[in-house]
Amino acid sequence: MDRPAIVVVDDQSDSLESLERELGKRYAAEYDIIALNSPETALERLEVLKSEGVQVAIVLADCWMPGMDGPDFFQLVRRLHPQAKGGLLLDWGDSSATELTLHAMALNIVDAYSPKPTKTPDEAFHQFVTDLLALWTKEQRAQFEVVTIVGEQWSRRAHELRDILHRSGIHFGYYDVDSEAGQALLEGRGAVGATLPVFIRFDGLVLSNPSNAEFAEALGVRTHYGASAGQEKAVADVAIVGAGPAGLSAAVNAASEGLRTVVVECEALGGQAGMSARIRNYLGFPAGISGDELAARAYQQATLFGADFVFTQNATSLQTRDGEHVIVLSDGSEVPSRTVILAIGATYRRLEIPSLERLVGAGVYYGAVGSEAMALKGQPVFVVGGANSAGQAALHLANYAAQVTLLVRGSSLSNKMSDYLIEQIEARENISVRLQTEVIDGGGDYRLERLVIRKRGADEGETVSAAALFVMIGAVPRTGWLPETIPRDRRGYLLTGSDLLENGRLPDTWPLQRMPYLLETGLPGVLAAGDVRHGSVKRVASAVGEGAIAVQSLHRYFAEPDPAGAGSRIRASS
Description:
By secondary structure, the protein is of the alpha/beta class. Helices cover about 30% and strands about 25% of the residues. The strands form six sheets. Strands 10, 11, 12, 13, 14, 15 and 26 form a seven-stranded mixed sheet that branches. Strands 2-1-3-4-5 form a five-stranded parallel sheet, with helices on both faces. It has a five-stranded parallel sheet with strand order 17-24-18-19-20, covered by helices on one side.
């Protein structure tokens, strides 16, 4: 197979020679370096590479070229090689390129930009190149497979396992049972005839249709609190329910400040944000970062500070005993803690269409864009929703699918979606938007094959071919397991701080003289952060901020006099 190519385009001969030399010294062992002196010549060469089936990893181009500027050039590149990553090259001190560059980044025409190298080696330039290569490699090249799954492509259970692995940032391979590779794997591991899906760990361990707990334990993840010696009676300083952005932020902040911290997560890292293909408006990541990568980094950070994680367990009740809060888990075990932060987020609202609910995991998905996108190359795909998560999904899917149709019940994308996403969607030729349109039916023999959609107010629906449907139509909070002493709004979101006041009075169940803290619920020492909180801003940055603020409120809580008269609640952590 031909090696992937790095293509660089610059009409200035001295600059092109410098770029070719710098790239060749660092990357020529693994990539073909192709240097071209005009956008027209480059497009002709890219056309040839496409016809020959050569992968193009990254394309670098000068911002200003005769007859065609960089952004216009990259729009044509996207049509030929949509998976290639694009980098805009600037001359040092060229202030005239600022507006053009910002426009190209806002519309997602390019992935990043950098000044041209000025010395050798220019490590800042190479950081820019390697970041682009890392993005491309993650999406397009085979990684070391920590786990291999063999199953039926349109199996709901196979989809669940793929989704968990993807959101947890674990490299895996998936092989259809009917493929030659899939059969070879099963034969090689003595698993022919085993119940699908089959889990194969890198060291040869084989599990047939494992439960989530078996799956997690095989990956070395803790699924029971107190499983290590001496932990059974340990009382945490803070127990965090949920490992989305708010929960992970709280874990990092609490553990870094010496608090004994345990996080309970029933599914996978990242919550709904973990399903985002690319978050462009999070501080410090101008080129964006995927939700699963952000979550994986936060998880690693929290564990390095000493936070303890328990996966695959649902919190089933929250009780208060002898001044401590106790979270009861679905396996019957308990997590005792002095304080609790509820960062349980929300789950995607269901379509409640029986014909489509039967196909969940077999073409119908709630979130899960990252784990399924590559299997949809060249096919028609639909996304339901009008907020940022739907926009991010549509843009990511457009890199693979032949056509992405965004179905929005409202009359305008601007009602709920950020401007930068709207601009990017409008710039993509293979994304169409149908406003005031909803899904009313669909079906297929064993996987999704068609949808019935209807313009609001129309008498009849329209049947369209569809390989996949991704549903992102708002969310419902996971608060039904909490005690009645924690008040909620009519939709189930948790009331905190001054929102607990009704006609200027606190609930009769509030036992203290002071007002609740900013993020404190109706139960002292129990706080809420992120999407589950009434009035929260549904953005990753705000969830991360609330996680940090919640930890600061815990310190105020610990410093209070103990109602039992035993001094303050401060207790040394061990």
